[in-house]
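Continuing the series of single-chain predictions for the mutant panel. This is the parent chain; the variants come on the following pages.
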Amino acid sequence: MTRQDAQEILTSMTTSESLLRHARTVELVMEAYAEKLGEDTTKWAVTGLLHDADYQAHPDQHPHVIVSLLRERNEEEIAHAISAHYTKWGVNYDTLLDKALIACDEVTGFIVACAQVRPQRLEGLEAKSVIKKLGQKSFAASVDRDEVRAGAELFGVDLKEHISFIIGVLQKHQEELQLSPQLKDE
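Parent structure:
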């Protein structure tokens, strides 16, 4: 599956700016990890891009709609990773792709939330600050902290290093993601 195909699928089911940005941020992080680990960058990026594609249009059926669509297109590895991107769904983590998606999804959204409440956004954001915010249950309360930790553990990465890696990836794309520092007169 090409990125263009994935983008068309995503935008056919998702119009929310925040969900589209979340899909893009997870896509970028997954692609960067694939490059770092010598994996298929397109496959990993597409998996990140499509992991929540059906969430807005079919919240009660998420992720079954996107998983079924991918299986119809013979994209089983991507479909399986998406079917497993929440530990409480009880799906096996068979591949590094499966583990990477679970490790990158929730924490990437949390890092974006941390950046959005800072005037300097991603500039100067450090892993220790993100970890401190994880301890504040009232901040980004919908983020499942257990999921963040379980994802890093499944992927076999140190949480602080993982967060630093993700921040670095997002900083490279901060203008596109609208996470650049705010101007003084904003």
